[in-house]
Amino acid sequence: ARRKLSSIKKANAVTLDGAPIELVANIELPQDVEDVKAAGAVGIGLFRSEFLFLGRDTLPSEDEQFEAYRQVVADMKGFPVTIRTMDLGADKNPKWSVHGVSDNPALGLCGIRLCLAEPQLFRSQLRALLRASTHGKLRVLFPMINGLTDLKQALAQLDLARHELRSENIPFDEKLEVGAMIEIPSAALVINSLVKHVNFFSVGTNDLIQYTLAIDRNDDAVSSLYDPTHPAVLYLIQHTIKAANKAGLPVSVCGEMAGDARLTRLLLGMGLRKFSMHPANMLSVKQVVLNTHLDRLHTLTGRILRADDPDKIHDLLQQLNALDC
Ligand code: PEP
Ligand code: MG
Predict the structure, then answer these.
(1) For residue 175, with 0-12 CB atoms within 10 Å meaning exposed, 13-18 middle and 19 or more buried, which class applies?
(2) Best substitution site from 183, 226, 256, 281 to test ligand 1's pocket, by max atoms within 8 Å of Cβ?
(3) Mean pLDDT of 69-92
(4) What does the pLDDT look like over 222-249, one tens digit per residue?
(5) Could you give the ipTM of this predicted complex?
(6) pTM of the complete model
(7) Which among 64, 93, 113, 247 could disulfide-bond with 60, CB atoms 3.0 to 4.6 Å apart, if both were Cys?
(8) How far apart are CA 3 and CA 10, in angstroms?
């Protein structure tokens, strides 16, 4: 039975067989929190903090950053807020950057690499995040991790920031949770080496698809080839979810796939229980959750994951979405 949209908005996201599904939101700036609340999200799964660093001539100070993070976690009143450290350099280039734009920016000094190349700047953000962590439930997420080496270096910077704050008697949440984005195929493939070092994972499918299929996510000339259900992409997502579940670590998807209601059942069938999306997509995704028995997804999901012909996958996906369950 289909419910009215207004009643869906207030409903908890629970499947027909009673499994709670966490639907959280992606934001770019502190003022987006209003939309998050209006959409009924139970947290923020991705705060793209780099937007605080864009469209301006100078860098935001540590205090200015602190105030932005504090405001968001306080506004969310105890709901978890996952703040991604600045993810610049690929498709987002700040005016103040001293690094030139490379021929292949998406393969260049971007994401965590740029942060590790600018440790002072990175630590100003990490200090601001740690300071804000006493004002609500804040979690830190590192973007563009490609394996254990860059993850360890990022964690070492976080440890340095903790050490600095301790020596200045500035409080922070000692239990702060730290996660890695899985959005580079190598990170998905070596995920078992990362599980001991983080508290959670978030799958960035926008970049994962780009890097797996070698399709520029912003190039219209190849946009028709950008296929979230390509068997290689599904393999990497499935591998990530399984490894996280096995290690007992929470995993979410925060790329556009999480907000695409046509893919909700497939992701549920693959074992995903947390989806982070633009607030505008929350109702349609929740509607699918409310109309789905997890139990009844197994057969078709299994066939999709075993299929090697993309046409067959598309056909099976339609069947999955047409299931009356
Ligand atoms: C992603 O890559 O899927 C993601 C969520 O991050 P962004 O879109 O900001 O690169
Ligand atoms: Mg990304």
Answers:
(1) exposed
(2) 183
(3) 95
(4) 999 999 999 999 999 999 999 999 999 9
(5) 0.99
(6) 0.96
(7) 64
(8) 11
**Residue pLDDT, tens place only, 135-150:** 999 999 999 999 999 9
Q: Is 162 annotated as a binding residue?
A: no
Q: Is 115 a catalytic residue?
A: no
**What does DSSP say about strands 138-142 and 177-182: parallel, antiparallel, or unpaired?**
parallel
C-alpha 197 – ligand 1 centre gap (Å): 22
> Please, which residues have CB within 8 angstroms of residue 216's CB and are 6 or more apart in sequence?
106, 210, 222
Q: Is 273 annotated as a binding residue?
A: no
Angle (CA) 286 22 18, round 5° = 75
CB 154 within 8 Å of CB 96: no
How far does residue 169's CA lie from ligand 1's centre (Å)? 35
Rounded to whole angstroms, the maximal C-alpha distance in the chain is: 60
The number of the ligand 1 atom at minimal distance from the alpha carbon of 203 is: 3
CA of 151 to the centre of ligand 1 (A): 18
* Closest approach atom of ligand 1 to CA 254: 5
Is residue 230 a contact partner of residue 215, using CB atoms and an 8 Å limit? Answer: no
Distances (CA, A) of 306 to 154, 192, 297, 301: 36, 22, 14, 9
Q: What is the pLDDT of residues 5-15, one digit of tens each?
A: 778 888 899 99
Cα–Cα distance measured from residue 95 to residue 51, given in angstroms and rounded to the nearest whole number: 12
Task: State the number of CA atoms in the 13 A half-sphere of 240 facing the CB.
Answer: 28
3 carries a ligand binding annotation: no
